[in-house]
Amino acid sequence: RIFGTMTKGDEALYQRLLKVGVVDSQVQANETKRLFRDMFKDPSAVDKNMITKMPTEVGIQTKRKLLKGFAKLQDSYIAEDDFWKIINWNLERNRYSGIAEQIGVTKDNFKQLIDKNLPKQPLETAQEFALRQANSRDAIKALGENGDKIADYFSNLAQRRGYIDSGLNSTEQFSNFLDEIAGNLTRNQVPNYGYVGKTARALRQSPFGNFIAFPLEIMRTGNNILQRSLDDIATGIPEIQGLGYKRLASFGATVVGVPAAVVGTAKAYHDVDSEEMDALRRIVPEWSKNSTLVPM
Question: What DSSP string runs through 21-33?
Answer without folding.
Answer: T-SS--HHHHHHH
